[in-house]
Specification:
heterodimer, A: mainly alpha, MetI-like fold, 76% helix, B: alpha/beta, 6-stranded mixed beta sheet, globular, binds adenosine-5'-triphosphate, binds magnesium ion
Chain lengths: 286, 256
């Protein structure tokens, strides 16, 4: 074989390996969706969304779970945007770039994003539940999950700010803008797409988290809707887990149906993130 | 009014990046409502000198400017420690080498500086935007698409938009750093024509590599070399009868 023939064979081989592994991943995902749809799809109707969980599998629904998930996500989004974006702005625009303190913070953020989520649950149990006496409430859940996904938002916000051309920042300063005005009038609006993508990806991570919420003591059976952020709650993945751990097969059908809802929500969030990214990419023409 | 009153006096200006000295003892008077061209070989410090005037150098941590840049008639040393950079940049506008419009509409680009200063009244904003676009010679081409994105303009139009953006806040001095070096000859001609209009109200300092441009549209020309000011004079005089041998060499293309 000549050298170019060898290269061709090798290229072909690599392409094949790549395609096969891609196909494998897609097949696993598709069969998961299909499996859930076949087993749980028939269970999804209006009643499923408007009923509380029940001891009778046929009457049980996910009302408290999806309301809980929605509320926890809203609190998480609010806290994450507030703290995550401010932290990123500080690190990117106000901190001294090569200061040891800045380096330490950056290192910490990287470490945090690699920490197992259950440790966040333990941390929250100690600080929010016991020390601040917030209980196993919606607020505690929101605080815990936003801690968990803060690194994602901080990193993506910094990336978004950094990808803006620096000569436009100069243009803003040259017009007499302060640092804050430059952020407010130019950088934030221009980086909004990237920031929102990060926030949504963070939420799609948070929406499926179960371990830290179980750790802080979220209930698995709730037959009422929370009235304030200090009330106990449950969320979709916990409801799912609860049904799955029952021996009766009817409950497993419910679990599949709840899984389908959760998966749809996660995929929808990811889709939104992708759409935003495409739009942003189109609008950038420097 | 005095014909040749001085707008800016640069006195003993020395400039450093860390320990590297980029400007050496510059002494220079800029005449009011004239176009002063700064020329010299690449790296001689033209941009640096320009950026000192609106304190853009303060954004670079390792940069230090020593000396005085006195704005007249206020008689204020811009490099003084008690001077607010924002106050300076309100009076000294700047246009960069590469057109750099914001990813916003034409209108919002020109109105940017006005909004920073808290102008909210829509008619007032519109008037100022139109005035600035007229001064920059762009109004006729874009008056029907002010709400469209500035990024859809041609390079030459973008640069005139940037000039309009700087003029909208009615500065006393306009700094142009090689404003036409990224543009085609026709766009360049457009901007050069507009200079005579602009200098009716504003003092212009323009860096250029193009000797013809300096000769064509400036009143005074300053020649710099390796951080030093070699010669300053009326443009016609400097180009036809330079006093310094080095200026002559540069003009006749023997180096640079
Ligand atoms: N941010 C910076 N940090 C360190 N040194 C710098 C910086 N900016 C410029 N310099 C140095 O200062 C000197 C003068 O640069 P300047 O940009 O003022 O030259 P110039 O005359 O405008 O050149 P050109 O015609 O190529 O634009 C150069 O030696 C350059 O390397
Ligand atoms: Mg330069």
């Amino acid at each position: 074989m000549t050298r170019s023939q060898k290269r061709k064979v090798f290229n072909f081989f690599m392409k094949l390996v790549g395609l096969l592994s891609l196909a494998l991943a897609l097949i696993v995902l598709l069969s998961l969706i299909l499996d859930l749809a076949i087993r749980g799809g028939g269970r999804i109707d209006m009643d499923f969304f408007t009923s509380f969980p029940s001891r009778r599998a046929g009457q049980a629904g996910i009302l408290s779970a999806w309301v809980g998930t929605l509320l926890v996500m809203l609190i998480t989004a609010f806290l994450t945007i507030l703290v995550g974006v401010s932290a990123a702005l500080y690190l990117e625009e106000y901190s001294k770039q090569n200061h040891p303190m800045t380096k330490l913070i950056e290192l910490n953020i990287l470490n945090l994003s690699a920490m197992p989520s259950i440790l966040y649950g333990l941390l929250a149990l100690g600080i929010f539940v016991h020390y601040f006496k917030l209980g196993a409430s919606l607020l505690t859940a929101g605080l815990t999950l936003s801690l968990l996904v803060l690194p994602i938002v901080i990193v993506s916000t910094r990336e978004a700010l950094r990808s803006l051309p620096s000569n436009l920042k100069e243009a803003s300063f040259a017009l007499g803008a302060t640092r804050f005005q430059t952020l407010y009038y130019y950088q934030l609006p221009s980086a909004m797409g990237g920031i929102m993508t990060g926030v949504i990806l963070a939420l799609s991570r948070a929406i499926g988290e179960t371990a830290p919420l179980i750790t802080i003591g979220a209930l698995t059976y709730i037959a009422f809707l929370p009235q304030s952020i200090m009330d106990p709650f449950t969320v979709l993945p916990i409801q799912l887990f609860n049904w799955l751990s029952r021996p009766q097969a009817e409950f497993h059908v419910n679990a599949a149906a709840a899984g389908l809802v959760l998966l749809t929500l996660t995929l929808a969030l990811n889709l939104i993130a992708i759409l935003i990214r495409i739009r942003v990419r189109k609008s950038i023409k420097w | 009014m005095v014909e040749n009153s001085t707008k800016l006096q640069i006195k003993n200006l020395n400039f450093f990046y860390n320990t590297q000295q980029v400007l050496k003892n510059i002494n220079l008077d800029i005449s009011e409502k004239k176009v002063t061209a700064l020329m010299g070989p690449s790296g001689c410090g033209k941009t640096t000198l320009l950026r000192c005037v609106n304190l853009m150098h303060e954004l670079v941590e390792e940069a230090e400017a020593l000396g005085e840049i006195v704005l007249q008639p206020q008689n204020i040393n811009l490099l003084g420690l008690d001077v607010d950079p924002l106050w300076v940049r309100e009076r000294v506008g700047m246009v960069f080498q590469k057109p750099n419009p914001f990813p916003k509409s034409l209108f919002e680009n020109v109105a940017y500086g006005l909004r920073l200063r808290g102008m909210k009244n829509q008619t007032e904003l519109s008037d100022r935007v139109e005035m600035a676009l007229n001064q920059a010679g762009l109004w006729g081409e874009v008056s029907d698409r002010l709400q469209k994105s500035a990024l859809a303009l041609s390079g030459g139009q973008q640069q005139r938009l940037c000039i309009a953006r700087a003029l909208a806040v009615q500065p006393e001095i306009l700094l142009l750093d090689e404003p036409t070096s990224a543009l085609d000859p026709i766009s360049t001609a457009h901007i050069e024509e507009q200079l005579s209009e602009i200098k009716k109200t504003v003092t212009v300092i323009m860096v250029t590599h193009n000797l013809h441009q300096a000769a064509r549209c400036s009143d005074d020309t300053v020649f710099m070399l390796a951080g030093e000011m070699i010669e300053k004079g009326k443009s016609q005089k400097l180009f036809t009868n330079p006093q310094d041998k080095r200026t002559e060499n540069y003009i006749t293309g023997r180096f640079g």
